[in-house]
């Protein structure tokens, strides 16, 4: 099947349908995006005049996601972003412009901000997105490109700024949603809130569960989120946040080539060792804004995140207790006239993290009967017992100048990240290992609005990606201690683009970028350490070039078309050879060679979605999702086809999927009611959702077949 040709035919049909249908009936509401204020750059600015590439996802798009549990649903129409959801929940692999693509778990170098509170730890690592209930999210801002000058290690690839709903303007209002679907999926969601004098409150709770579309892939999760906004005067706003998350999911692992005949099965280690991850986390946070004068304000935020984590594998059961506090302060000064405005900002970010971690050796249970239980066999063999302490300091300054239609922005930031590991299995005189990283980063950008329909922007920024705790604590020289060979990856990126708006009829953004990275990372495994243990090294340098395009078009009142396209050319350009990574008796993976494509990076990605308002109450949607082929391995031997071809095949075919949705809305007894039905992968195509550069050949993560989801939403 020619997937590229099919996508082209689909888009042509969409465009031709839009020109043939006459006006009439109900309209599809599109928000006036040009007037949205973007805050991801730490200084509020209108989207239309922002100096960088930014996408905004509004509730109009978020309300149409079928399950409400995955970032890949919420960000499906954002170019430049790639998301792999391995467990039908939120243990995701995410990258922006290829940054963070090699992480075994979690999110690297992408700043995740939830209602002003950072999700990332001091090194810029976000372990997951369990804390985000996408059903309660109002808007998402995605700033693509290095923003280390604003957020340090958590801004190497970009920023995802998430804002949840606040309470209704009336004393009480809310929403109840129930969704059911294929593979035992269920999500129950309720949110309510209101306003009482100076206090606005909002509370949401959800419970989701499913069996997964593969064996040993069951999951369940609970999210409780509470937000209070206190405004005692026009000058003062204080927001308090409480977020509690419990999430459990089984890990089916990747498949190898010999297992392609049954894509639903789990890897042979997953079931007898009962491999799973369990997270129990609570975050308490405060954000505040104090306007000192008409031109001066202070913004502050603080948080404390406490959580425990357990992961089982075919080698060990790992236990972690995390304690993560943080504090941010920012002073803003605005001065000038309406035709010549200046804003100057100074700020600091402080974060700490303490982790108590130990590992017990695992044992297999061949007689185990598959279930959702959390029992696993652990011996009394202690493989690791250590305490990891991490702290970071960031100092930043921002200057913004607005002269009529011209905007100029400049940032500078200094970061210092310290890591200490206390290994309790070693003698006291040698049990502490330390690794510190520091970097000064810059960014400059400009935009000029020729008209509402055309704004030109360009900027140059630097990225700083220090090794995370996940990478440092994965030590190839033992089950404990740090990987002392790692050094930070640094990058610089130049981008230029155009964006424009024509009311609610048209908005678009097209960006060209070129990024170079030094000391880029690669993943490897060591003989005898098991499938679950992944180690990291510095591969050398890489080059990333690409085009990102996002378009929303409403040719007539009945029709809305949204499209996102990404062209990506990501390659390693030079190799850094460290003996610790090239001794074949020690590790299984050779570093990548110059000219290799970065793994799991399709050259073309496309998502197109058509909404048709058939009547005042009924809306139909059709969408297509396309990805071209991609490389699998970083190992230069596997990449070149020099290893066993029955195990290692470097190139994975792409895929083209089709989806459909129907929404029916009506009003009864003062409540708004919505019924929806979503069909995913209409043709029931078998495909690989993503791959991992696994030296053992267990690289393949199949996607689900045809799925059906239906739900009922009542707003009052």
What's this, in brief?
The chain is mostly beta strands and 716 residues long.
Give an overview in words:
- This protein has 716 residues and is mostly beta strands.
- The protein has a single domain (3-292, 299-365, 388-429, 445-715), classed as Maltoporin, Chain A (Beta Barrel).
- 6% of the residues lie in helices and 55% in strands.
- The chain has seven helices and 37 strands.
- The strands form seven sheets. The chain has a 22-stranded antiparallel beta barrel. It has a five-stranded mixed sheet with strand order 3-10-11-7-8.
- The chain is globular and about 65 Å long.
- The two termini are 47 Å apart.
- Residues 3-31 and 579-586 have low confidence and may be disordered.
Q: What tags apply to this protein structure?
A:
716 residues, mainly beta, Maltoporin, Chain A, 22-stranded antiparallel barrel, five-stranded mixed β-sheet, 7 helices, 6% helix, globular, disordered N terminus
């Amino acid at each position: 099947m020619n997937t590229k040709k099919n996508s082209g035919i689909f888009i042509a049909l969409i465009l031709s349908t839009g020109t043939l249908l006459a006006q009439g009936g109900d309209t599809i509401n599109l928000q006036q995006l040009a007037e949205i204020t973007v805050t991801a750059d730490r200084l509020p600015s209108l989207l239309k005049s922002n100096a960088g590439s930014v996408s905004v996802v509004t509730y109009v798009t978020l309300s149409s996601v079928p399950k409400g549990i995955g970032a890949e649903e919420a960000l499906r129409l954002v170019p430049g972003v790639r998301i792999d959801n391995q467990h039908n929940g939120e243990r995701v692999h995410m990258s922006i412009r290829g940054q963070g693509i090699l992480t075994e778990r979690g999110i690297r170098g992408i700043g995740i901000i939830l209602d002003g509170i950072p999700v990332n730890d001091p090194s810029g690592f976000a372990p997951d997105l369990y804390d985000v209930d996408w059903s309660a999210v109002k808007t998402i801002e995605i700033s693509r490109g290095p923003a280390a000058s604003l957020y340090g290690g958590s801004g190497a690839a970009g920023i995802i700024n998430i804002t949840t709903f606040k309470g209704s303007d009336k004393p009480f209002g809310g929403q109840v949603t129930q969704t059911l679907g294929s593979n035992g999926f269920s999500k129950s969601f309720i949110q309510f809130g209101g306003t009482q004098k100076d206090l606005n409150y909002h509370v949401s709770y959800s419970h989701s569960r499913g069996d997964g579309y593969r064996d040993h892939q069951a999951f369940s999760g609970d999210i409780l989120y509470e937000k209070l906004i206190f405004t005692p005067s026009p000058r003062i706003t204080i927001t308090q946040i409480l977020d509690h998350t419990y999430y459990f999911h089984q890990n089916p692992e990747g498949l190898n080539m010999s297992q392609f005949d049954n894509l639903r099965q789990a890897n042979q280690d997953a079931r007898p060792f009962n491999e799973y991850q369990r997270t129990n986390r609570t975050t308490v946070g405060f954000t505040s804004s104090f306007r000192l004068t008409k031109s001066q304000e202070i913004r502050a935020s603080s948080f404390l995140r406490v959580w425990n984590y357990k992961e089982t594998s075919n080698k060990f059961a790992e236990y972690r207790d995390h304690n993560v506090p943080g504090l941010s302060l920012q002073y803003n000064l605005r001065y000038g006239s309406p035709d010549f405005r200046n804003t100057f900002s100074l700020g600091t970010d402080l974060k700490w993290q303490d982790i108590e971690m130990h590992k017990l050796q695992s044992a297999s249970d061949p007689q185990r009967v598959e279930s959702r239980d959390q029992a696993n066999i652990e011996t009394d063999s202690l493989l690791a017992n250590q305490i990891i302490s991490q702290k970071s300091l960031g100092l930043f300054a921002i200057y913004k100048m607005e002269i009529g239609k011209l905007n100029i922005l400049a940032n500078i930031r200094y970061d210092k990240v310290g890591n200490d590991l206390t290994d309790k299995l070693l003698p006291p005189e040698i049990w502490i290992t330390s690794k510190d990283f520091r970097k000064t980063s810059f960014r400059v950008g400009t935009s000029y609005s020729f008209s509402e329909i055309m704004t030109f922007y360009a900027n140059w920024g630097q990225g700083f990606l220090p090794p995370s705790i996940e990478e440092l604590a994965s030590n190839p020289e033992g089950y404990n201690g740090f990987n002392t060979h790692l050094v930070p990856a640094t990058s610089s990126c130049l981008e230029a683009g155009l964006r424009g708006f024509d009311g609610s009829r048209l908005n678009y953004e097209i960006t060209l970028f070129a990024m170079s990275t030094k000391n880029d990372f690669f993943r490897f495994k060591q003989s005898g350490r098991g499938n679950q243990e992944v180690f990291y090294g510095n591969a050398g340098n890489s080059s990333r070039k690409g085009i990102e395009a996002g378009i929303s078009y409403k040719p007539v009142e009945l029709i809305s078309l949204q499209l996102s396209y990404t062209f990506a050319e990501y390659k390693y350009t030079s190799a850094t050879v460290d003996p610790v990574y090239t001794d074949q008796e020690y590790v299984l993976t050779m570093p990548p060679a110059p000219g290799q494509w970065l793994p799991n990076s399709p050259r073309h990605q496309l998502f197109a979605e058509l909404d048709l308002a058939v009547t005042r109450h009924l809306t139909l949607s059709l969408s297509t999702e396309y990805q071209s082929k991609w490389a699998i391995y970083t190992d230069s031997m596997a990449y070149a086809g020099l290893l066993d071809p029955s195990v290692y095949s470097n190139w994975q075919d792409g895929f083209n999927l089709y989806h459909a949705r129907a929404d029916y809305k009506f009003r009864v007894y003062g409540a708004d009611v919505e019924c929806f039905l979503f069909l995913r992968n209409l043709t029931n195509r078998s495909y690989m959702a993503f791959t991992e550069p696994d030296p053992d050949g267990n690289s393949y993560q199949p996607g689900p077949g045809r799925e059906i989801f239906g739900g009922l939403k009542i707003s009052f």
